[in-house]
Structures are given as C-alpha cells and as structure tokens.
Amino acid sequence: MIFESGQVYCKGFFPPISIMILNHMQGKKSLPIVIIVAGVVLAAGAAFLLRRSDADTPPKIEDRVVDTGAGGHLRGAPDARVTLVEYGDFQCPSCGYYFPIVESLLEGAPDLVKLEFHHFPLIQVHPNALPAALAAEAAAEQGKFWEMHDLLFQSQTAWSAKPSAEEDFVVMAQRLGLDSEKFKQSMKSDETRARVLKDVERGRAAQVEGTPSFFINGRPVHPLPQSVQAFKQIVEEGVASK
Amino acid sequence: MNLRAAATAVVAFLGMVDAMFLASSHGPVPCRLTGGCNDVLHSAYSSVGGVPLPWFGLAFYLFAFSLAVLDLTGAGRALRWLFWPALAGFLVSVGLVGIQAFVLKAFCEYCLASAGLVTTIFAISMFSRLRPIPDILQRTPSPD
To answer: Which of A78, A131, A163, A232 has the highest count of CB atoms within 10 angstroms of its CB?
Structure first.
C-alpha cells in the first residue's frame, strides 16, 4: 500500500474496492456506496415484481370439460369425489416439482381426491422419459406401478442427465423386489410400449401440450397452482363444482 | 460522463435483476420463448458445489456494477479491474450456452439473456482495454 496525501492505494491484480471505499469514507464521499446499495435494492425490487407478476396469475380450472381418456393408473379411494388426472413425464423437472405437492394433496384428503396418472413422455427433449415410462409400466406388470412412479420422481435428478438410464431403472426394480429378468423383458416388450404410446395418443386427444398437465374432474387446470395450499384450493373448487 | 462505465452499470443492473429473479425462483418459471427453462434450471449443471449458478452470476454482476459506480463517481479508474473477471465470465457463459445447446438440448431464455449481458460487459471491458489507461499510481489525487 502506498500512502499519499491521506489517500490509500494498493497495487495488485485484485480490485481495491474496499480501499477506494475507504478513501471516500475518509473524504466523506459515501455516494458510490449509496448508489451501489440503491442499485442492489432496486434490482431486488424489480426481480421481486417479476416473480410476483408470475406467481400472481391465479391458478384456474377452465370451464370446458375434456375427455381425458381411460386407462390411467389410479391411486386413492375409487369413490373419491375429485379425480385429479395428471399427464406426466418422469424426466420433466416440473413434474418432479409437482410430485411432492400431489403426494401431500392425496395424503391430506385421501377420501376426497384420487389421482389418475397417464404417461406423456416428451421424447424430443427427454431421452430417458420413454424408458422411464416403460420402467413404470414394467413395474406395473408386477403390481408395483406406484412404487416405481415414486422412486422415479424421487431420484429424477440422479438419472435424468445420463445418456441412458435403463440400468438405473433395473437397479430400482431390484430395490423394489421385482423379478429383474421379467422386468427387463417387460421393458422391451411391444405391449408395454403400446400401452405408453396409447396414453400419449389419449393425451393428444385431450389437447395436452406440455407436462405436467392436470385435469380436475375433466376440466383443465391452467395456470397451474404453485403450492400445496393453492392446489388444495383448486381441488376444493373442483368439489364445489361437481 | 464515462460512457463505458455508464453502459457497464446499466448492463450489470439488468444482470442483477435477471440473476436475482433466477436465484429466488421456486418451482417452474414461465418460459414462453425457448420452452426449456425448467429443464435447464433443474439440470445437473445448474449448480456447482451445491451453490446454484444464479448466485455466481449475481456476485459477478454486483462486482461489475460496483466497479462501474466507483468509476462513474470518480473514485478511480475502477473499470480496469473488470477485464479479467469479465473474460472469465464470458468463457463460462460460452460453456453454459454450449451445455444448453449440445448436452441438454434445451434453452433457458433467462440464461441466454445473462450470457448476452456478460458478453456485453466483456466487450465493453475489452474495448476499454484497447485504449491506454494511465496507471492508477501515476494519478495525482485530487485535493479534497
């Protein structure tokens, strides 16, 4: 450091911001600090407004009723008043985000809501989505669709970036106590593939454009609620409208 | 008025807004232009050592903004310290856009915007470097 006329300088690569600030404090010039703090506060405010404008769009159940198609996997009480249909993709991060939300929704109102899951793998952007759907269907053949469904979402970040996650799915099947040879055969079978593709066809017919797509008693939910509470509210509206 | 510092301040401010928006995002973000935001933001490449990338971006933009403000308010030719960090930021941005294009095959508009902002800051910084800047030590401090 070199002291010169009461000012402090520091020669070096790293920017001597603190020293510049110190110099200014000595000269009672706190203007830069004020501007920097104001800039940060303004930026935080702008970011907050952007976030809120997005979150403020209230979730809605559309008025139209869509034929969401039969054949989905059911979870919950068969006579529950609300059927929540989900068209999902196991590799889609947003579906992974909604997994715990839907879980707690079902746990919170087991007699009120039942879930009907349909496959809608976005094969163009998610190379492991179709194999994951096939894995869930192969597990379904041994009676463990929902166990595999949960495991796939819970470990989504671990397998989704891999070039091929099929080995991971076999390990998952073993963890679930499935017959792994039978599981591998099911994953490769044409019937399993046909079941998944049939779901995709149903989704297209129901005008599913992205994942996850939710329907409450056949009515599309759009925009999607972003929290468990908001989802609960939407479901209660679904009960009221039935 | 130092135009380069003013431009850097404006671009860094926009970068702070973008980075704060991403750092504060919980759940899916709207993605009207590129469609792949959530795939990118939730990918294995979205954090380093458990720290989400937007926080690194925010640190860079705050640094650039601070230097630009110090420069503008006459606290010294602070912008000269931005070149190497901006070069590093630019190279990281090129890498991240590459990951979006070739690995994830999904684009996030907020991330592309950030890459554009870092590139702009780097371009301004490079332009500044092309012109000789007197050494800070040679400067006679103005008497207060």
So the answer is: A131
Tracing tokens 């702009």 back to the chain, one arrives at: B120
Collapsing DSSP states into helix, strand and coil, what is residue B100?
helix
| A12: pLDDT strictly greater than 70 | no
B5 vs A71, more confident: B5
Q: Determine the Cα–Cα distance for residues A105 and A115; give it in Å rounded to an integer.
A: 10
Handedness of CA A229, A234, A235, A239 (dihedral sign): positive
Which residue, among B43, B47, B66, would best test binding to A if mutated, counting the most A CBs under 10 Å from its CB?
Answer: B66
Chain A residues 168-197 within an 8 A CB cutoff of chain B: none
| C-beta separation of A125 from A117 below 8 A | no
Q: Cβ distance B107 to B40 under 8 Å? A: yes
Interatomic CA distance for residues A170 and A191, integer angstroms? 19
Q: Does B143 lie at the interface with A, CB-CB under 8 angstroms?
A: yes
Banded pLDDT at A10 (limits 50, 70, 90): very low
Q: pLDDT (tens digit, 9 = 90+) per residue, B20-57?
A: 999 887 667 878 788 788 888 877 788 888 788 999 99
The pLDDT value recorded for residue A29 is 66
pLDDT score for B115: 97
Question: Per the CB < 8 Å rule, is A39 touching B16?
Answer: yes
